[in-house]
Description:
The protein is built from 5 helices and 5 strands; from the N terminus they run H-H-H-E-E-E-E-E-H-H. It is α+β, with helices and mostly antiparallel strands and 245 residues long. It has a 5-stranded antiparallel beta sheet with strand order 2-1-5-4-3.
Amino acid sequence: WASYRYGLTCRLVVSFTGVVAMFGLFTIFLVHFTLFASLRRQVIERARLTAINVGDNAAGYLFKNNAKGLRELLLKHVNQPEVAYIIVQNRAGKIFAHSLDILPEEVQNTTALGDIRAESQRSFRLGDGVVYEVTVPVMDGKIGAVRLGLWRDEITSEINRDVMPLVKVLLLVVGGGVLMAVYLAWRINRPILRLVRAAHRISSGDLDAPALGTDDKSEVGELSRALERMRSSIKAALVRLGGES
């Protein structure tokens, strides 16, 4: 084991598999990070479009001061597990209607909408989880705004369900690449090992076994032919010495 541990085969295997594994794992990390970020942006953009749609429908309820009807409308849009709540504020920044049974203190925002006419996003802790919140003004903030909250853990779980099959396939590809690297390292070093064994036989006095691989056109074949010439020369010299004696 010690000879293989410090031998060329081990070094080739470690080098090849190390390069393949590092490149593969880096690729998996890059794909996962890029795809995860892209899908999260898509989810938030989808929430933004939902908030805009709710805002378009909520305008009439705000004009009519119909909080009960607006709440029924909001409840129809919170049937997705990632949606934590939908809140509609009036122009003064007061909460006009919401989809929650009990309104937590963390989401009670009384900021006047006259100062936040543009769309905005934020994240904060709500209970035991974290919420991504998208705020969209209604009619440019002239009559109110819609705030839609998304559970971060639900978004992460949803994205992982989409991403993990691809990651598993990439892991299988990397595993196959590692096995191929081991095979190539063994295949490249096999002729060298044969020459090492031939050199050991020659050094122990076995001059009858010819070297293998002399027909190879590569550098390994050149080394094999040189070893064969050395074996033949040593054998001829010993024959001459025996005849002279």
